[in-house]
Amino acid sequence: MAYIDVFNGDADGLCALHQLRLADPRESQLITGVKRDIALVKQVKASADDTITILDISLDKNRDALVDVLDTGASVTYVDHHFAGDIPASGNLTAHIDTAAETCTGLIVNRVLDGAHLPWAVVAAFGDNLLDTAREAASSLGLSRAQLDQLQTLGTLLNYNGYGSSLSDLYFAPAELYRRLQPHSNPFTFIENDEAFPALNEGFNSDQTKAKAISAHQQTDKIAIYLFPNDPFARRISGVYANELAQENPDRAHALLSELDCGSYLVSVRAPINNRTGCDELCRQFETGGGRKAAAGINNLPASDLGRFATAMALQFG
Q: Which domains does the chain have, with CATH numbers?
């Protein structure tokens, strides 16, 4: 019998798993990767007595692999907020899927656990750029403004660490970062005591300064498209900087395209804060695209498709 935890390497996936294992501690095999590495279920080698938990990755992108796991007789719990499509019918599957624009996997886990580790769900929501939702969720905790700001910074940094085209782009491999979170039932002790927090904060501030120096490639009152160079800083900052731009311009959709070694682009898209929908529909028009209504991406957009992407984005949000 084995326990296997499969999770997205961003803030939401990390905080979702951390809540579950604080409530139900167990030694498990960890399967994760960079934020865009979502076809993770195919890495699971399951047998009938195994228990698998899958967090914050699209069921739609993992359906065939999930069916293969279920066919072994293994028990699977699946918690997510991305587009799912048809959910397999199996007595071995427990699914908690909610694609509402104002939720995230960490908040869904918080509901399942009846708020047992709410501060970490708040961190997850901040990491997913659900700022108002995070503050509302935190209202019962009695936190000061400074403490709430600390949780927002932590969520931002955990999310920032997940972006990149490979693990070499990241400051910490997501599995290592999760292990660093494990001893901390309280986010504030992690902030105060783990060297990962200042390291990520310093890296983020440096990358953000470089990002702010880049002007929009194309911009209207409805959309803005940024082209970032082929550099690890660009891949690291793309998602979190897109969140920042969305907060600063709540009626505009944003896309950040970071050039890859092959000449294609890694794409991060954010819907307008005032109308959190449409990103998944836009990105699924492209072969390696996917995500959720408020935020989505394309793992490999050929340079020849840049014009088609700009047209599709204008049609989606214009």
A: 3-201 (3.90.1640), 214-317 (3.10.310.30)
